[in-house]
Amino acid sequence: MFRLRVDDHVMIAHSLAGEFFGPAQNLHGATLAITATFERQGLDEHGVVMDIGVATQLLSEVLEPLRYQNLDEHPDFAEKISTTEVICQHIALQLASALPEGHGLQALEVAAEEHPRARGMVRIELSPA
Amino acid sequence: MFRLRVDDHVMIAHSLAGEFFGPAQNLHGATLAITATFERQGLDEHGVVMDIGVATQLLSEVLEPLRYQNLDEHPDFAEKISTTEVICQHIALQLASALPEGHGLQALEVAAEEHPRARGMVRIELSPA
Amino acid sequence: MFRLRVDDHVMIAHSLAGEFFGPAQNLHGATLAITATFERQGLDEHGVVMDIGVATQLLSEVLEPLRYQNLDEHPDFAEKISTTEVICQHIALQLASALPEGHGLQALEVAAEEHPRARGMVRIELSPA
Amino acid sequence: MFRLRVDDHVMIAHSLAGEFFGPAQNLHGATLAITATFERQGLDEHGVVMDIGVATQLLSEVLEPLRYQNLDEHPDFAEKISTTEVICQHIALQLASALPEGHGLQALEVAAEEHPRARGMVRIELSPA
Amino acid sequence: MFRLRVDDHVMIAHSLAGEFFGPAQNLHGATLAITATFERQGLDEHGVVMDIGVATQLLSEVLEPLRYQNLDEHPDFAEKISTTEVICQHIALQLASALPEGHGLQALEVAAEEHPRARGMVRIELSPA
Amino acid sequence: MFRLRVDDHVMIAHSLAGEFFGPAQNLHGATLAITATFERQGLDEHGVVMDIGVATQLLSEVLEPLRYQNLDEHPDFAEKISTTEVICQHIALQLASALPEGHGLQALEVAAEEHPRARGMVRIELSPA
Known about the structure:
CATH superfamily of chain A: 6-pyruvoyl tetrahydropterin synthase/QueD
Largest sheet of chain A: 4 strands, antiparallel
Number of domains of chain A: 1
Low-confidence stretches of chain A: none
Largest interface: A-C, 24 and 24 residues
Mean pLDDT of chain A: 96
Strand order of the largest sheet of chain A: 1-2-3-4
Shape of chain A: elongated
EC number (chains A, B, C, D, E, F): 4.1.2.50
Pathway (chains A, B, C, D, E, F): Purine metabolism; 7-cyano-7-deazaguanine biosynthesis
Oligomer: homohexamer
InterPro entries (chains A, B, C, D, E, F): 6-PTP_synth/QueD, 6-PTP_synth/QueD_sf
Family (chains A, B, C, D, E, F): Belongs to the PTPS family. QueD subfamily.
C-alpha cells in the first residue's frame, strides 16, 4: 500500500457555539496547516500514487473558497459547527469529488493542525474509480 | 473515521538493565515528547472526536506522576524495563482507564519521540463505552 | 552571551484594513505560534538566563488577554493595524514591562509564525535592571 | 500493536522520464528524509519492537548504496522510474530482506519527505519469521 | 528591529569538485529548504517589514531559474563550487537586486537546510534605499 | 557573514540543586537536541564555512563523554549546576578548543532544546586562528 501526502494551509475566523466550547465561543481564528494524504493499493503506470503537482493543485483549489474567510458566514458551514474535525471532513469530501476519473485511489486522509499542540484528522474510504 | 491528537512531554531518568541495551544500561535520561491520538468512527453531538481541552487535561493528568521522576525507582515500573515502548503502553492504559463514561472512542494511540531520530508508539483498541 | 527561548500560541481573528493587504482585508484569523527569547550577557547566580517556569508563565500571562479574541475590537489594537509584526511588538513591550526587578536581561525577542511559511519577529534592547 | 520509527536521509540526483513529470524530466536532485517504521503485535523479551541501535544501523546500511548517487545510472533503478514512491518501495524491500531471523515483525513502513510539502510512503506486510 | 521570514525550496543536482568534498564529488542532488529573512529598523507605513505576498513572490522568482536544474551546467555557477553557502550567497545577492525602490531594509539573510541535520546561511547588510 | 549549523543530541540524567529549581531538584533526565553553529566573515578557499563532515564529527566527539551519563556524577560538572545554559557553555568551550588550526571562524553558537517548548543557547566570540 502506497501513500502520497501534500501540504497547504488556510487562515480562517470562526466561533464555536455552545457552552461546551468554553472560550472558543468567542469569534477568534486559526491557521489550519492542512495535509492531504492519498492512498493507493499499487502504483499507477508512472510509478506514483498521483502526480505531486496535480495533488498540490487539487488541494489548493479545494482550499481556495476557505482562504481568509469567516466560517460563521460561509455557506458551506451554514448548518454546521466548524470544528477542526468538521472542516477536515468538508475538505476530504470536496477532494473526493474533485478526483479525476480513474484515479485508482482507495482512501483519502485530511489532517489539520490548528495549533502546535492539537491536530484533527479524517479518513474516508473511496470506491476506486 | 476521525482522529484528534494532542501533545505534551515528560523529562525522566532511567536505566535499561541488560547487555542488550549497551550504553543505555547507564543511568541516563530522556525528554519524551508525547502525542496521544484519540480515534472515533463518527463525530459526537458537538462535531468533535473529543473536546481538545479535555483531551489535553487528561493527557497531562496521566503524565503528572512521571514528571521529573527516576523511573528506576518508580512503583509503576517496579517489575518492568522502562523502554520507550513500555512507557507508551503504560500511558495508553492509564489514558484508557481515565476516559469518561460514554466516550464513544474506538482506539487510542500513544507515541513518544525519545530523541530527534527515534520514536516508539502503541495502539490499543477500545470497547466503545 | 546567553539566550533562553520559550514557546506558546494564541488563536485570534482580525482583518487588515487597506488595499495593500489584498484578501487579508477580509475578517479572517490566525494561530500565532509565539516564541519569546530572553538574552543576558552572563548567567545569574543559578546558572540560568531566567527560570524556565517563570519565563513560560510570564509569556502565558502576557498572551492571556489575546486568546480567542477578535483584534479588530480589542482595545490594545484600537488605533493600530494588527499585522504580525505589530502583534510581536505589542507582546514584547508587555513582556518587558512585566519583567521582575533585577532581571539582568539585555534584550528580548518575540517571533510569531502566522502560517507554516511566514514568520514575523521583533527585537528590543533592554536597560538591564 | 507497537511501532518503532527511526530516521535517516540520502541525497541523490535523478530525472523522471516522460512528459507526465513536467520539469522533473530535467536532471535534478533531492534530499530524501527517510523514516522507517517497524511494527510488531506485541513486544519482544526485552520490552521493545526492535533495538533502536539495530534499527538505525539496518536503515543506514540499506541507504548506503544510494548516498550521493545519480539514480539514472544506478543498477537498482535500471528499468525503473525513480519516483519517491518507487524509492520507498526499494528501501522497504531491502530492509525486509535484511531483517534478522526471528524478528517477529508484522509490517514495515518507509516514508520519504522529498521536500517540505510532499512525502511518499509505502507499507509492506511481513510474514513474522 | 523587525524581521519577516518566508520559506520556499528548490531541488537541484550538482557535484562538488575536489578531494576536500569526499563522496559529494559524485553527481548527486539536494532539496534546499530556503528561508529568506528581511530586516528593517522600524516598520513601514503599513505596519510591516514588507508585504508577505511580495516577499514570497520575490523569493519564488529568484529561485525560479534554479528549480530542477543541474548546477554543474548552470551559467550562474560556471566558475563556482555550488556549496550550500555559495548558493545562499547567490540567492541573497539576487534578492537584494530585486528589491523594490524605497524598501527601507537594512539586512537580508538567506538560509538553506540541505538535509535534516545541516544548514548553511548568509547575511548581507543593505544600504536602505 | 556566513554560518553553518549541524545537529546532534545527547540523553542525560541530572538534578538541579536548590529550591529555585522546584521539581527539577529531583533526579530526572533530558534529551538535549543540540545545534552547533559556526560563523565566519567570508568563505574559505573551498567556498564553505567549514566542511559539514568535519563539523558533524567535531560536535559528535565533544558530545561523546556526555552520552548516557548522569551529570550529577560527571567530573566536568563537579562544581557546577548542569542547567541547559551551563551545558551549552560547556559544549561551546569544548568545541572552541577542538577547532583545527587556521579555522578562520569568528563565533560559535551552541543551542540545546531540552523539551519541545524550551531551548537554551550560548554564543562565544572567537579570535580567528
